[in-house]
Sequence to fold (139 residues):
Amino acid sequence: MPWREWVYVALGSNLGDREAHLAAARRALAGLPRTELAAASTIEETAPLGPPRQGPYLNQMVLLHTELEPQPLLAELLRIEDARGRKRGARWGPRTLDLDIVRYGAREQADADLQLPHPELSHRPFWQRELAELEPHVR
Fold:
């Protein structure tokens, strides 16, 4: 069997039916090739980050067990965001769906389009809570 890695993916939404966007993302992630959705954290509402005025977010993190490498996984996340109507505009602006690879095993990477672990991890207490909730599921 090919090598599989544990990957933490953050989900966020603050436009439209936020719960439906998160549910659709979980279904899409569970359907990725050579990937298992192993666990999902509790959903929590958080204040938006950054300067644009916007409503609160629903946030959640999922734990994937995948054979996909980071770049192909990122391409799948962008495809899922697009399918939910994600429009790219202002940094930290409102969005129907935001999917971020927070950790990809112990891998470290610093490409223009993907940094691992995610550079904002230490600044987002809700991500740290969600990671702690999911870590017991790693087997």
